């Protein structure tokens, strides 16, 4: 009986001491201050991302092999064809070097003929990712 009474008295004091404190919380309105350059960069990134589509574009694959050789081929390609972009794609277990992003097959074939002179193993592809 005595233990029950001391527990109830102790719990009463604990609860009353916590109820006496004023509760502080976060303000309901949040004001975010951001650099305007950030918004400009974000809009540019959105434009770039919207223009990058893999499924409906043609590319030319100029190399298939190891990572080191792919890097060498890509750097050599960029020196020879400054107006075309290129990238290295990893396809287990090898690396591929894809160059160009052509909207139409005719445009891709024109560039493919020029690339074929320097890279005789080049392939005209339409990647499906």
From TrEMBL:
Mind listing the UniProt keywords for this protein, alphabetically? Signal
The UniProt GO MF terms for this protein read: peptidoglycan binding
Query: What is the name of the protein in this document?
Result: Sporulation protein
Signal peptide: which range, if any?
A: 1-22
Asked if Signal is a keyword of the record, the answer is yes
Q: Which domain of life is it from?
A: Bacteria
């Amino acid at each position: 009986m005595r233990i029950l009474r001391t527990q109830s008295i102790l719990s009463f004091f604990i609860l009353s001491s916590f109820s006496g404190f004023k509760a502080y919380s976060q303000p309901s309105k949040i004001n975010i201050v951001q650099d305007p350059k950030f918004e400009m960069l974000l809009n540019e990134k959105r434009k770039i991302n919207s223009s990058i589509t893999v499924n409906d574009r043609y590319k030319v694959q100029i190399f298939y092999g190891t990572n080191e050789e792919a890097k060498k081929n890509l750097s050599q390609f960029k020196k020879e064809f400054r107006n075309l972009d290129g990238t290295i794609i990893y396809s287990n277990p090898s690396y591929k070097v894809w160059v160009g992003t052509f909207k139409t097959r005719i445009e891709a074939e024109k560039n493919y003929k020029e690339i074929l002179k320097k890279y005789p193993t080049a392939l005209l592809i339409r990647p499906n990712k």
